[in-house]
Design brief:
alpha/beta, 6-stranded mixed β-sheet, 8% strand
Length: 738
């Protein structure tokens, strides 16, 4: 009668245990021949008799001949092994899952290693083996077989035992690394043969029909299955197609040319790196094991043990192995422990046969040199304006938000990744719900319970930005509008045009295709040139307020260093953080750099030009808004000026504009005396807007102290004090009447 396949794993285990019983019986019979006095059995393991001592030092080595009963039992064992092998093969053809066969196949175990696994599992299937193993080891307190007993049971000859012994001597072997309990292998004071053969709990649970992921891997590890619902790919679809095609071709290559694959992907948070890998795994019907390396370092008592458990889980599920936050393994100043972790990480990757993805928020120059594996690298960049507009629109529809917001303008202002856009909308919806503004009819999805407020949206956008600009710059809250800045029409038009360059980026760069024509220089750079107090800082605030962007003021005098290379380092850090913030960078006091002139007279001038060129280079690379303020326009080389989008000259205000400035500085609630004559003040005193602001504030405090409205005498007194700061003195006849 032909052997039939197993219907269930438990049938298979039953046959394996029957086979084990026969092997144990044979081992017992062979030992009985060496222990002639059965009366000492009751004291087994408690003392060594004289007869046993003589047997131990001069007895047979284990290769003695078998008697007839033993030969008959050996033949039965061989028949059972052949019968089990036939049934396992039929089960494989029928697609029946047998855990022992599967574990043996995925870990590449040899037949004798597979028998070791079954020995370790036996005590989990039937507790009778605890007593049997204790009896055979002369130690009834021992519940599991030691290595010596395992070798005697699993091996048929001394030669086989010596060969199998190397399985336990090599800790990098797959049986020792993934299947056996690690602590049991490292008990101090024990010889190799006396160590217990103890399966890892994860292997036991898997073989007892537990397909769930190892719970001790959480929260750092998550499994994504092929049938899980995934978010759609709204950008970088071409990269996904390219990835699928490349991997498919690699799978179909001849065996001799086939290589294991590894991919290093990096990009800003929310760029869609994980989503790309999820879609790829789903396409090839593979589970995906996502591992957060930063969480592993944070929660794992032993990085090496946790990493081994992670790789074992990936092998058990034949999963695509994906490590996120790779930068956690690449600290800026690695110590010895970090180097050791990295070495161990590379060792495990080399031993993993499946596909590997390494994801990072920034580019890391990998020290891993894979063995027999092709490592490919790719950056997932921030989507262009058109892509970002599609993302804003799609996510807004998905979340059901209603808002009077131009998504094209938002895509131009914020260089956000898909994840940042989605999180911003989700957070803005929460903010708007808190403010409890009902959705207006016709303003969006009728299912949206609350309207999306513009201020809530901008607040949510800046919540997505994590940067460290405050270390080298000062945050300025924009408080001025177009009505506050007093400038000639030409300068105001230039400021408005500059703002429009941000508002309509989506049209020009996206719809009209200019993005493809420009490799760099897609940001906005402006130079405000004019005497102190003419409105340069105020205009920077107006631009930031108009565009609803954060404004950071950088004092170049604090950035420039006398040490070679330090200035460039400081500028690099500022622009790196600015890329994360989407902020307006306002460089004040650039005279500290431009004031050295671009004419080269000595080595200091030459290096000053290098610093200036580096600043302009970073401005061109920056895709946000950069504003420079200088009092010395004539000191800047024309070649440098050509690299700036807008050069706006702030003239010293004439009497007409000074009068407007005087009017604009007093709030409506300020009590003004009838004797205040703004026209007289504008014509009589040639001071800039910044000085006028100081005078107005000082005169207000003088009036408040006197308990009366603001009078001309308060203003004139404040003018005297303001001019004294710059060394100017008013003649007595100019103020005597007040």
């Amino acid at each position: 009668m032909a052997a039939q396949g197993y219907v269930h794993a438990w049938e298979h285990y039953k046959d394996e245990l029957t086979l084990l019983d026969k092997k144990l019986e044979l081992l017992y019979k062979r030992r009985q021949k060496l222990t002639p006095d059965p009366q000492t059995d009751s004291f087994r393991g408690m003392f060594v008799s004289e007869d046993e001592f003589i047997r131990l030092i001069g007895g047979p080595s284990g290769d003695e001949e078998l008697d007839g009963e033993e030969l008959e039992l050996l033949a039965s064992i061989q028949n059972s092994e052949a019968f089990i092998a036939l049934r396992r093969e039929e089960s494989r053809k029928a697609g029946v899952f047998l855990p022992l066969s599967y574990v043996s196949a995925v870990f590449g175990l040899s037949p004798v290693e597979e028998r070791f696994v079954m020995l370790g599992l036996a005590v989990e299937l039937d507790r009778k083996y605890e007593r049997i193993f204790g009896f055979l080891q002369d130690d009834l307190t021992s519940k599991t077989p030691n290595i010596s007993l395992a070798l005697q049971i699993a091996c048929s000859s001394p030669e086989d035992m010596r060969a199998a012994r190397t399985t336990f001597m090599a800790p990098e072997g797959r049986l020792a690394r993934y299947a056996l309990h690690r602590e049991a292998q490292e008990i101090s004071g024990q010889t190799l043969l006396s160590r217990p053969l103890l399966l890892d709990k994860r292997i036991i649970s898997f073989m007892l029909d537990s397909g769930e992921m190892d719970p001790k891997l959480k929260p750092a590890v998550r499994m994504v299955y092929p049938d899980d619902e995934l978010a759609p790919l709204l950008v970088h679809e071409d990269f996904q197609q390219r990835l699928q095609g490349f991997i498919q071709a690699a799978f179909q290559a001849p065996a001799a040319e086939r290589k294991r694959l590894a991919f290093h992907l990096w990009g800003n948070a929310g760029a869609g790196k994980k989503l790309q890998v999820e879609h790829l795994s789903s396409h090839f019907n593979k589970p995906l094991l996502l591992v957060d390396l930063a969480d592993v370092l944070l929660h794992a008592a032993s990085f090496e043990d946790q990493l081994s458990a992670i790789v074992r889980e990936a092998i058990l599920h034949q999963a695509v192995l994906c490590f996120t936050r790779l930068e956690a393994l690449y600290p800026e100043e690695p110590d010895l422990a970090a180097q050791r972790r990295l070495w161990w990480f590379h060792e495990l990757l080399d031993g993993y046969g499946g596909m590997v993805f390494l994801l990072a928020g920034r580019f890391n120059r990998l020290t891993w040199k894979p063995k027999e594996r092709l490592l490919l690298e790719h950056e997932l960049q921030v989507p262009d304006e058109g892509g970002r507009e599609r993302l804003w629109t799609a996510f807004a529809r998905e979340l059901g938000v209603s808002a009077d917001v131009d998504w094209r303008v938002m895509s131009g202002k914020f260089r956000f990744t898909p994840g940042q856009i989605r999180r911003a909308l989700t957070l803005a919806r929460g903010y708007s719900a808190w403010q409890r503004e009902p959705a207006r009819e016709g303003s969006g999805d009728v299912a949206a319970p609350y309207a999306l407020r513009a201020d809530a949206l901008y607040k949510a956008c800046y919540q997505q930005v994590q940067h460290k600009l405050e270390r080298k710059a000062t945050r300025i809250e924009p408080r001025y509008g177009w009505g506050d800045v007093i400038l000639p029409p030409e300068q105001k038009d230039q400021l408005r045009n500059a703002c429009n360059q941000v508002k309509y980026r989506g049209v020009v760069y996206g719809d009209w295709g200019f993005e493809k024509k420009l490799a760099y220089g897609k940001g906005l750079s402006m130079l405000f040139a004019g005497p102190p107090g003419t409105g340069k800082t105020m205009s920077a605030q107006v631009v930031a307020g108009e565009l609803q962007l954060e404004l950071y003021k950088v004092d170049l005098s604090q950035v420039i260093s006398k040490y070679i290379g330090e200035t460039e380092k400081n500028l690099h850090e500022i622009f790196e953080e600015a890329q994360l913030s989407n902020a307006v960078l306002f460089f004040d006091e650039t005279d500290a750099l431009f004031g050295k002139r671009s004419e080269v007279k000595d080595s200091h001038d030459k290096y000053a030009n290098i610093e200036t060129a580096y600043l302009l280079q970073k401005m061109e690379e920056y895709q946000g808004i950069t504003v420079l303020a200088t009092n010395l326009l004539n000191n800047i080389d024309e070649a440098f000026l050509r690299r700036i989008n807008y050069v706006i000259k702030f003239p010293f205000p004439d009497s007409e504009y000074r009068e407007k400035i005087w009017y604009s500085m007093f709030p409506p609630a300020a009590p003004l005396s009838e004797d205040v004559d703004f026209k007289y003040l504008a014509q009589r005193y040639e001071i800039a807007g910044g000085n006028i602001k100081n005078v107005v504030l000082s005169s207000a405090f003088l009036a408040a102290e006197a308990g009366e409205p603001i009078r001309m005498q308060h203003i004139i007194k404040s003018i005297r004090h303001e001019l004294q700061k710059s060394g100017k003195i008013l003649a007595r006849q100019e103020w005597e009447e007040y």
